[in-house]
Specification:
The protein is mostly beta strands and about 220 residues long. It has 2 domains: about 110 residues, no CATH class; about 100 residues, no CATH class. The protein is built from 3 helices and 14 strands.
């Protein structure tokens, strides 16, 4: 086991890990694969644990992983695309890389006690969104991360729909069907009142959010 490890990133600051273990597949060694593929990797990172199986060969690497108890606010890859977010994350991932560059991926994501600071322009007092529990299926294609379907159930908002995040340009494009949560503050209720009604549920509204992830804006149309 290695401790106090720094994990490099191609496009961003390195990620500190409390510990890291790597072990080969013993049966692969017996069969004559001197690399012992796939490798089994576990690490303590972002205040949680990630366990992964890594199979590399011929320039292509496939990573299958599970993560538990990750602190969103302490995870640089998360805060880069969703600044101001807090909560705990659990999920699964399957990533394919070519020559060390991610090509595609998919998996699931569950957030607990999620809160997202949202400095939405034009609505004084709307400085955060208590999202509560979030469940999503995600897909990665190049530098675009899509969460669809996405279900959110929190004290401020109940929502379903899709969210697309740009990993390189740090942009967001979201379209959600929303209703006020049981504890939604007045600014959120006023904002929802201005949104167009959902075509299939007159009690719900359609929320479109676009722009930079650190300064998104609501599209009222």
């Amino acid at each position: 086991m290695l401790t106090d490890v720094t994990l490099p990133r191609a496009n961003g600051p390195p990620i500190p890990a409390a510990w890291l273990t790597i072990r080969p597949t013993l049966t692969a060694l017996v069969r004559g694969d001197r690399r012992g593929r796939p490798w089994h990797v576990s690490l303590g990172v972002c205040g949680g644990v990630i366990a992964a199986r890594v199979d590399a060969g011929d320039g292509t690497t496939v990573v299958v992983a599970e993560g538990h108890g990750l602190d969103l606010a302490a995870c640089p890859p998360i805060t880069a695309v969703a600044p101001g977010i807090t909560g705990r994350a659990h999920g699964t991932a399957r990533l394919q890389l070519r020559d060390g560059v991610r090509e595609s991926g998919d998996g699931t994501l569950d957030l607990d006690d999620a809160v997202w600071a949202l400095p939405v322009s034009g609505f004084q007092g709307l400085d955060r969104l208590r999202a509560g529990e979030v469940k999503a299926t995600w897909r990665l294609a190049g530098e675009r991360l899509a969460l669809e379907p996405l279900e959110l159930s929190g004290p401020d908002l109940v929502a379903s729909g899709r969210v697309s995040l740009g990993l390189d340009d740090r942009t967001v494009d979201a379209r959600l069907t929303v209703q006020a949560g049981a504890e939604a503050p007045a600014p959120i209720r006023r904002l929802l009142f201005l949104l167009p009604p959902a075509p299939d549920d007159r009690r719900a509204r359609v929320l479109v959010v676009q722009g930079a992830t650190d300064a998104p804006h609501v599209v009222l149309r």
